[in-house]
Amino acid sequence: MEIKFLEKTKYRVMFEIKGVNHTFCNMLKEELWDNSDVKVCSYRTKHPLISVPTFIVETSKDDAIKAILSSIKKIESENSKFLTALKKI
Q: What is the pTM of this model?
């Protein structure tokens, strides 16, 4: 996975994520929308099979990078819970 920032200010970031697909992008987008400070959160691809997804995240009060990191930690936690539940089967 490779991240390339196209725009980066305190409250707004735009970046490309090379090496991921819609599954990861949708998961991150949904988790970001659960943050009440997030005003804008979306991603796009020019072509669904060969393009690099471009994300945009805007926040109203909190640092946009902190909001992304917080969302990723929540995703990690949920994945860990899922893995633990699977191992019990």
A: 0.87
